[in-house]
Amino acid sequence: MFIMAKKKVIPNLLCWFIFLLPMDQFVSNESGDNLKPSDTSHRAESGILEGYTDIVPFRDKFTGVGTDGRIDNISISGERVPVDFSNKYKLNCAFSNDKILIVAGDHGTILYSYDGTCFYHAEPATDKNINGITCKNGLILAGTDEGTMLISKDGKSWSDIQTKTKGNILSLSANKSFFIGITDAGEILKSTDGQNWEIKNYNKEYAGYNRYSKFKKILATQNSIVIIGTHDDGSPSILFSTLGNVWAERLPFYHDDEGKKSYLTKKPNGITYDPDRDQFFLACDNGGLFILPTCTKCNEYVKISEENLNAIIYANNCLIMAGDEFSVYIQRI
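^ thats the sequence. predicted structure below, dont judge the formating
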């Protein structure tokens, strides 16, 4: 780990960051028991690039999950402690509130923890890959391949319902009013109760008006909903909506260091929201960080690293970004 002083590339925004290199050897847990890395023999066969896939805050730390079932606790100072090796499958998503931490992934894997250190296997409800988790009013939902929705009130016991989506559910989010999700078939699904879902095909409804979009992630705040992904030519797609019914594309133009107008070319992988400044942050391929303030002409781009950034969260005036090669960047705002 090293700390780098960085020039102020965005006024009043980025002050410093901590970059964490991949760990060749794992450190010990609090009890002093030596932890051993999980079996990585299947990685070469699967072709999966190792790295973090999601990161969430929990208690006074952050939890990163990724390939080979890896779960790491990450402190705000940059220390990382691997905490669980009971699962060998790729973990795709995580969720936390003030009571429970839930991580999920391939082959129906769901693990839960009350302290962020000891994890337990939830009662299985599916063997399908789980790609996204969200919660509203105490109801936890997890979206899987083939349109199955898992439902739980405690994170331990899960039931399932089959939605009528044609694609795999990729990402879920929620605000105080509704749940909302996306599929890899260009569908947007919305529900107020988690049981009954309205499904619309974005690409069919907007054919001839907006460009075709391949969805990646969705994030719902109280006032806005954002979907990120790519167009059929690989260029970034960023869609905004207020209620999830009408969608407008926001073009990712920005001014570079020389003041020239540029267009974001890096694929966005993760998204988070800063409610204090009412702006969104996108984690992108090749270490790109893209900022979307309320002013549509004020977008900004910052080069953070060379590794792909796969996940990003905003917490306590910090951006925490995680990516390939198990890299982590903690950046004060």
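DSSP finds two helices and 31 strands in the chain.
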